[in-house]
Design a protein that fits this description.
elongated; 367 residues
């Protein structure tokens, strides 16, 4: 599964899909498309793709059965105001979960936009009525994209009344927590396996190499896929178990809830995590030996001041490069305008995705 919308299709796109499925030996792979905010129209999707890829009945939503598993595709561009679609989803979920043959089995729901108060602390969410309607069905697992937010982040799965999962992007990933928009051309996807007693969701970086980034409306250089890497896992596999004979019992066994949010802070594992280095042009930089966390170090709060005046030289949040696998062992932070002979004081705090912060590391150095 990926979080990329279909966009406005054309015969060339259809052939590209088919050619790549054949190239990968996946000609029998079933494609199920949901409408996204970049798509031209439902009519364009129907005209541009085979019927089996988008078998909607007129409103952009439909049901599929994949190897005995029910998959419900919703149209998140209209869901909140579409009473007919809402009635259809609730009716189908009621019927499917009432069947004893489906006890303990997930019902997969896919749509482009995430719903409110779920993944990634509710970022870029819409359709509060979708959350309301799914709330009565803890067997539902909603997969959504739209945000392009990084699936390395464990906030990409959330459980309360149902399970909600951010499925990343096959185009580029975005990173939250910074003042400016930050994007990287690293494609991500999920590999979902449904077993009798559990559903396993593996997080995959399709291209794991570090390449140039998109920032302030421009790519920093001419990045050139295909990448050399074969891809990597971008975090531990999530396991969803739907134990219980009642809705409340199922929810009592959820493990990715607000109440179980991670509280373990990152920590620096070397005695001297900060050091002064020179860059290739003779400039001064602060090198950070990366901290460790039980899940993921998200960013560093970096403050560098002039030791004699206390004036701020650098005050910034710096990403840990967690989206690249393997993560680099160190980061170099330039010290702009550093003057020979002057003393500077650096203070660095490592922060994880949940806001847990390490004790500060500090260093006094000269240019």
């Amino acid at each position: 599964m990926t979080g990329r919308a279909a966009r406005a299709p054309n015969p060339g796109q259809r052939q590209i899909f088919r050619a790549n499925l054949a190239r990968k030996g996946m000609k029998n792979t079933e494609l199920l498309i949901s409408k996204g905010n970049h798509d031209a129209s439902l009519a364009a999707i129907r005209a541009g793709y085979p019927r089996e890829w988008f078998p909607d009945s007129g409103g952009g939503y439909y049901e599929s059965v994949v190897k005995g598993l029910h998959v419900l595709t919703v149209n998140t561009e209209t869901y909140n105001s579409d009473s007919t679609q809402r009635a259809w989803l609730k009716e189908r979920l009621t019927a499917i979960t009432a069947d004893p043959a489906n006890t303990g089995r997930p019902v997969l729901v896919q749509g482009h936009r995430p719903t409110t108060n779920t993944t990634m602390d509710g970022q870029q969410a819409a359709n509060p009525r979708l959350a309301e309607d799914l709330g009565a069905f803890p067997q539902a697992i909603l997969f959504s994209g739209h945000s392009h937010l990084n699936i390395n982040d464990d906030r990409s799965i959330h459980q309360r009344d149902f399970t909600s999962v951010n499925d990343g992007s096959m185009s580029y990933v975005e990173t939250d927590g910074l003042a400016n928009r930050f994007e990287s051309p690293t494609a991500q996807a999920l590999f979902v396996e449904v077993y009798k007693d559990r559903t396993e969701i593996a997080r995959v970086n399709m291209a794991a190499d570090k390449h140039d980034i998109y920032t302030d409306g421009k790519w920093t250089a001419d990045w050139q896929p295909p990448y050399a890497s074969a891809g990597t896992l971008s975090g531990d596999t999530w396991t969803v178990r739907l134990k219980g004979s009642t809705n409340q019992q199922i929810k009592d066994n959820f493990r990715y809830t607000d109440a179980t949010r991670n509280t373990v802070a990152p920590k620096f594992t070397t005695h001297r995590p900060l050091s002064r280095v020179s860059d290739e042009k003779g400039g001064t930089a602060l090198r950070i030996a990366q901290a460790r966390d039980d899940q993921m170090v998200h960013h560093y709060e970096v403050d560098i001041t002039d030791a004699s005046t206390g004036a701020s030289v650098v005050s910034s949040k710096v990403l840990s490069d967690f989206s690249f696998m393997p993560r680099p062992n160190s980061l170099d932070i330039p010290v702009p305008g550093a003057v020979a002979g002057k003393r500077y004081v650096a203070r660095v705090v490592a922060v994880d995705a949940y806001g847990n912060a390490s004790p500060a590391a500090s260093l006094t150095f000269r240019k």
